[in-house]
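Practice problem: predict the structure.
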Amino acid sequence: MNRSDNDTWDLARSVGATATMVAAARAAASRRPDPIINDKFAEPLVRAAGVELFARLASGELEYADVGSAWMPDYFGARTRFFDAFFPAATIAGIRQVVIVGSGLDSRAYRLDWPPGTVVYEIDQPEVIAFKNATLGRLGADPKTEVRPVGIDLRQDWPAALRAAGFDPAAPAAWLAEGLMIGYLPGDAQDRMLEQITAFSAPGSRLAADYLRSDSASVGAMILRTAEDWRLRGYDVDFGALTYARGPKDVESSLQARGWQTVSYRLTDLLTAAGVADGGMDTSPDGHGAMDYVTAIRRGSE
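Answer:
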């Protein structure tokens, strides 16, 4: 079923299943000797989501190489590590508001260290927020700082919901949009989101994101082989139907036009920083430079 502007999902189907997929890869990356990330919450969250294939991959019962996805733990591990490092730099600069946009099964509020007074806002579909909070509650997990969930669809008026949760647009914030601007929002909604983030970003605010380059094929088209291997294992998901056909605009230039000073990275930069060889990335969505990774700082009035 193709995406529509009012569709919904949970963590076992449609776009929500991609959050479970990524969490399973984080769990696998965390199990490796000398791991580049440590996400102890990923595996129990995946198990609770109820997708058997992902649960087996997360636990190590099934290896990613067995399902044509050997690239996943390194890829998502390096991406996670890159964005993890974004937050200490932001808090060292004095930022105490953090917004994770499309938070899915993100557990950074529970596994990263935060300075006193930091508030982490997590924005996602209400069902996704409720599931994660309930699961972490059953695990007895305590966040390392204050977390304020904002359950709303990003295609709706999420800025109003964020402000109602206590966000202060007059104070600088650190924004993360991880795995979101790769086709999961229609082009107009993505542009609107960047405009809304900018409007809520005081000078000195920071942003980190990854995005699909405008000259790249869709994510679904790039991992058809992975989808077929998973289908043979009993999990049938049409990745091509999970993204919008409307082409994305260049995120970095859009940010620059809105007054952000940007630094861009490629996958090879992330892998090198993590000490991961890039030879196994040919079948990944970013195996041939399809995506960019960007950090940005909001400039003051000039």
